[in-house]
């Protein structure tokens, strides 16, 4: 179909909304929206299937703006197509409590699929969405019932392509042959420092071809709408490779400063906006103007989308009759509810059960629940054997052509790509039918910190199976031994860091992680064997912290996590025998969850009257919130057999006792020792 004046008007409307909103906010990025308005117009109006009245319709096409600084493009589109985003919301761009924040946030704004802005993340999210689409189709589609059959589109900029994380994910996407993924690169030769030739001169097209992508170039992304349409059509036809469309554009198209970094991140000047409006036939004295024919055109497309959803709904009704079990499973997953009774599969242990490494306990949990929780979909960053993340009968998520698995498989070979794994999990979770988990060493979760932070911010349920959680990993040494990791992720809002001490606590960690619909979890798991602790139960551990061992007339509380709790139990015996000191023991597997308990409960665990000493083989930072004294490791670890390393740092019953004696001695003259739980005001809101 030929393009007309209305198309041009629509494109210029998008450009001017971006110019007006950034001018009005006196902040923001007009350049990318003005350069990408033509491709956005063609993609949204000719290709994408969605219903603005129901932004969560399962079989919509997904769109990710990986160059999230260009979000005025996305906000303008959402408004024009009739999502619940008004002109006033555009006027409130970048103001406090608006639904149009400085970068797109999925949980704030209807129609935004994933939270982007940290460059490189969005394209990885898009890979995750495309994987989820492929997996969901392979799991639920039946002959004649293409319940899931559509595409993930992603815009990305030079910045995204420079970030290493996008290379990790793109390499995997090529291997996985994700034909439903179409990425469009805003090849405008500009980033903040100016012309990209100062730092970014590789042949990106060749690189992506080498990854196994289909790559096409559109020479004129500013005016050649038919060329853009043809490139997207061609990309859709390639079903066994992801596509990259290299779209040559001019940043800030139309502005007096077009093609320079001056339009990247600063509003245009008033007279510049004026000349744009004059040039394009808009009233120069009017802002946020939308011609009626532009609304009409876009609303027509949205009405087609609503009709497509209606037809899909009747397809789904028929599906429900023919495949009631699958239909019920799909509906349940879309609510993030877990299957009735799934938790009965969580293993429990008795004190006489053998000592087991918590990474192994984690594997047992996964093996026992995977059948009951079919949305569990995970893998490991090339540490499957060490991390024990794969149940025995698992099928790999692989393209059939590789002969290694198929798309219905639930086990992902992420390769050595922790950061992409984290970012892909965010995309997998955003799709709506999958509960993602990923395994690596705890130390290397830090490689993925950029993605973990976005999981927490955008309220994504994703699990990190983070094994080899401390100096207890032994011989691999300080390069692999986490020190600051727990402090870092405990400081991250809305992130649960679990460090279970035994089998019951490991089950508790999984229980809370899986049932918390809006919070990611990191499960820090040991390589070394841990005894089953008398008094641990799932019920107690799901409070985040509890009294493992109470004693009348106690002199001190020992507070610990994971592998050190068992050593504290031995230390308490030693203290009673050798020093006539009575120690009560608190296990604190998760700060975040403990903090959410009532003050009364927290004070019952950490009472007034006696000092508390924390024991954890990592940075002491953060423990001041719970204890008077801290025994930890504020330096790097050491390479050696794990028992020798623990001995070197004195994490032995004797070493802990030495600190306990010093604590009791130091605080004995302090009258009315107060629990650190008592505060003048609540520490968080
Ligand atoms: C991880 C990360 N690092 C740095 C930034 C800051 N930043 C925002 S946009 C940008 C330049 C991006 O260039 P490009 O993607 O080409 O965008 P364009 O200027 O073409 O709009 C940078 C460095 C960021 N958002 N994320
Ligand atoms: C959805 O995708 C399939 C291919 O995966 C395609 O055949 C179909 O036309 C698409 N539907 C719409 C409405 O875009
Ligand atoms: C684990 O929990 C179960 C059930 O609550 C309990 O019977 C058992 O004693 C606990 N195991 C340990 C080692 O405390
Ligand atoms: C421990 O507390 C008891 C009182 O509960 C006290 O009699 C005893 O002296 C204390 N021990 C030490 C070593 O302070
Ligand atoms: C079952 C399994 O694969 N175990 C492996 C776990 O990882 C360690 C290395 O860290 C191997 O020695 C085990 O064989
Ligand atoms: Mg650029």
TrEMBL record:
UniProt catalytic activity: D-sedoheptulose 7-phosphate + D-glyceraldehyde 3-phosphate = aldehydo-D-ribose 5-phosphate + D-xylulose 5-phosphate
Entry's Gene Ontology BP terms: pentose-phosphate shunt
Matches recorded under SMART domains: Transket_pyr
Leader peptide range in chain numbering: none
Site (Important for catalytic activity): 29, 264
Chain positions recorded as substrate binding sites: 29, 264, 359, 386, 468, 476, 480, 527
Gene3D superfamilies in the record: 3.40.50.920, 3.40.50.970
Entry annotation: catalytic residues: 418
Tagged with keyword Calcium: yes
Name under which the protein is recorded: Transketolase
């Amino acid at each position: 179909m030929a393009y007309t004046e209305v198309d041009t008007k629509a494109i210029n409307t998008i450009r001017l909304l971006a110019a007006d909103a950034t001018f009005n906010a006196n902040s923001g990025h007009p350049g990318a929206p003005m350069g990408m308005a033509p491709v956005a117009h063609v993609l949204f109006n000719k290709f994408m299937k969605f219903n603005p009245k129901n932004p969560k319709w399962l079989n919509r096409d997904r769109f990710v703006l990986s160059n999230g600084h260009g979000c005025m493009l996305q906000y303008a589109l959402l408004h024009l197509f009739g999502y619940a985003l008004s002109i006033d919301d555009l006027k409130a761009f970048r103001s406090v409590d608006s639904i149009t924040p400085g970068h797109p946030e999925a949980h704030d704004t209807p129609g935004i699929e994933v939270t982007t802005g940290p460059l490189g993340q969005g394209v990885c999210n898009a890979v995750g969405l495309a994987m989820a689409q492929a997996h969901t189709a392979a799991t639920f589609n039946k002959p004649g019932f293409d319940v899931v059959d559509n595409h993930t589109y992603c815009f990305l900029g030079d910045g995204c392509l420079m970030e290493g994380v996008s290379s990790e994910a793109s390499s995997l996407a090529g291997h996985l042959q994700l034909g439903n993924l179409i990425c469009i690169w805003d090849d405008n030769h500009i980033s903040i420092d100016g012309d990209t030739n100062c730092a970014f001169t590789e042949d990106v097209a060749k690189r992506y071809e080498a990854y196994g992508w289909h790559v096409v170039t559109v020479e004129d992304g500013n005016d050649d709408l038919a060329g853009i349409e043809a490139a997207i059509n061609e990309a859709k036809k390639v079903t066994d490779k992801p596509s990259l469309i290299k779209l040559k554009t001019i940043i800030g198209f139309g502005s007096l400063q077009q093609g320079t970094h001056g339009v990247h991140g600063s509003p245009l000047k008033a007279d510049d906006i004026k000349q744009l409006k004059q040039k394009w036939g808009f009233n120069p004295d009017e802002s946020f103007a939308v011609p009626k024919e532009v609304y009409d055109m876009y609303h027509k497309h949205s009405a087609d989308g609503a009709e497509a959803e209606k037809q899909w709904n009747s397809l789904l009704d028929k599906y429900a009759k023919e495949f009631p079990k699958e239909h019920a499973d799909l509906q349940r997953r879309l609510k993030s509810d877990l299957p009735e009774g799934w938790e009965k599969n969580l293993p429990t242990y008795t004190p006489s059960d053998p000592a087991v490494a918590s990474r192994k306990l984690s594997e047992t949990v996964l093996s026992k629940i995977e059948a009951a929780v079919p949305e569990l979909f995970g893998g490991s960053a090339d540490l499957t054997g060490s991390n024990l993340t794969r149940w025995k009968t698992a099928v790999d998520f692989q393209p059939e052509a590789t002969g290694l698995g198929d798309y219905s498989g639930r086990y992902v070979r992420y390769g050595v790509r922790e950061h992409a794994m984290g970012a892909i999990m965010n995309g997998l979770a955003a799709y709506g039918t999958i509960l993602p988990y990923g395994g690596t060493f705890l130390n290397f979760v830090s490689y993925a910190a950029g993605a973990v932070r976005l999981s927490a911010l955008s309220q994504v349920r994703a699990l990190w199976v983070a094994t080899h959680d401390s100096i207890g990993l032994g011989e691999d040494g300080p390069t692999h031994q986490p020190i600051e990791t727990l402090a870092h992720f405990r400081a991250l809002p809305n992130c649960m860091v679990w460090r279970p001490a035994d089998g019951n606590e490991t089950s508790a960690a999984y229980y809370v992680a899986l049932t918390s619909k809006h919070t990611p979890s990191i499960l820090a798991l040991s390589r070394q064997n841990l005894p089953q602790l008398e008094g641990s139960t799932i019920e107690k551990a799901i409070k985040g912290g509890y009294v493992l061992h109470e004693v009348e007339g106690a002199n001190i509380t020992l507070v610990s996590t994971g592998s050190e709790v068992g050593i504290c139990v031995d230390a308490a015996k030693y203290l009673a025998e050798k020093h006539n000191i009575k120690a009560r023991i608190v296990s604190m597997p998760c700060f975040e969850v403990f903090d959410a308990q009532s003050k009364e409960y927290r004070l019952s665990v950490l009472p007034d009257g006696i000092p508390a000493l924390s024991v954890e083989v990592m940075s002491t930072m953060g423990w001041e919130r719970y204890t008077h004294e801290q025994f930890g490791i504020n330096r790097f670890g050491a390479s050696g057999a794990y028992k020798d390393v623990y001995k070197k740092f004195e994490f032995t019953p004797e070493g802990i006792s030495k600190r306990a004696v010093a604590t009791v001695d130091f605080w004995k003259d302090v009258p009315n020792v107060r629990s650190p739980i008592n505060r003048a005001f609540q520490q968080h809101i």
